[in-house]
């Protein structure tokens, strides 16, 4: 039973569940104070979400056993996606959105 409790998959599940609880707490706490969610809260939620994606990639998609090139590509995709999403969200908040037609 102890082996099952401290197995890598069980610990991964605990980390993912804790991150989900943290996301819920942050989103609810930011709504209580302002009535609308702030950019800081959104940034925290996005970072927690991307940490969860990283954990899933490493543990369930077996990227941790992959060659260095694949690990680097996955990390580059992850951080580029985070930067683009947060950047676009910030642009929509600041009103500096550039429309390309």
From TrEMBL:
Pfam families: COX4_pro. It is a multi-pass membrane protein. The keyword tRNA processing does not apply. Its main location: membrane. It comes from the Bacteria. Keywords: Cell membrane, Membrane, Transmembrane, Transmembrane helix. The keyword Iron does not apply. This is Cytochrome C oxidase subunit IV. It comes from Zhongshania marina.
């Amino acid at each position: 039973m102890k082996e099952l409790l401290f197995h890598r998959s069980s610990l991964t599940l605990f980390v993912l569940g804790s991150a989900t609880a943290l996301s819920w707490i942050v989103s609810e706490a930011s709504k209580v104070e302002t009535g609308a969610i702030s950019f800081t809260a959104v940034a925290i939620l996005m970072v927690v979400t991307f940490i969860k994606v990283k954990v899933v990639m490493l543990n369930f998609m077996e990227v941790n056993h992959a060659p260095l090139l694949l690990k680097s590509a996955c990390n580059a995709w992850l951080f580029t996606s985070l930067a683009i999403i947060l950047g676009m969200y910030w642009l929509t908040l600041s009103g500096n959105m550039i429309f390309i037609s």
